[in-house]
Structures are given as C-alpha cells and as structure tokens.
C-alpha cells in the first residue's frame, strides 16, 4: 500500500514539474523574433525549416539568406549558436562575397576552425596494434618475451 501511494505522489509531482521543464526548453524571445524575420524575408521553406530544427547552414543557405536581405546579425547569431565549423577555400570566399554575403559573416566563417578547435588534441596511437610489431609498449604473443628485455627468459 505504501508503494502505491508513493507512486501516486511521484506521478502527481511529475505532472506539475514536467510542464515547467518543457517550458524552459522552448525558444527565447530573440530566437522567435529572428525566425519570424527569416520567414518574412521570403527565404525558401527548406532553409527556414533547417533553422527552426537547428540544422547547420550550408554555403548555399548562407547565400540565399543574404540574397533575401536577412539581417547579417541574425545569420551570425544563428551560426554562433550552432557552432558549425566552416573550412573555406578561396573559391568559397569569392562565391560568398559575389553573392552579397557581408564581410563580417565571411570573416566569422573563416575564423570558425580557430574558434572551435579543441583545447587539447586527443592522443592518437600510431602503430599496428599489440601483436603486429608496431611501436609501443605492447606485450607480444610469446609466453616469456617482453619487448624491453634483450634476451629471452
């Protein structure tokens, strides 16, 4: 009987707390205003849906947003929120600038590899693995052989 009453209390508590948690996960007022501005600009529904669902923007999407006269601040804010890393070559930069993308957006896109690089690169093992004679302190398959001793035991 005590377990049933505890379960009912927990379910009642969950009914009250769950809507509060879901409300906290919603869009901010700034994001709502940004998405409304993008929708009013006449950009394609595919790009608008990408933004609403939080997907990364491609170079084509950035060009389309700029050509639809979406404010560059909105585009930059969206790109910063996503943290996408863009690796651009000279043709990409020329194409963006020729399409009317603002210099601040292009500068930000070129800086993303530096901004979002990992603080510490992970250690990568370079070798063939434990039993193929690669570098490293591996034990070999022989029963008494240890690679740091000069002789067999």
Number of helices: 7
Low-confidence stretches: 129-134, 148-153
Helix content: 55-70%
What percent strand?
A: under 5%
Tell me briefly what this model is.
The protein has 153 residues and is mostly helical.
Topology (elements, then pairings):
Blueprint: H1 2-24, H2 29-40, H3 45-52, H4 59-67, H5 72-82, H6 90-98, H7 103-115
How would you describe this structure in keywords?
single chain, 153 residues
How would you portray this structure in words?
The protein is mostly helical and 153 residues long. It is 56% helix and 0% strand. The longest helix is centred in the N-terminal third of the chain and has 23 residues. The C terminus is likely disordered.
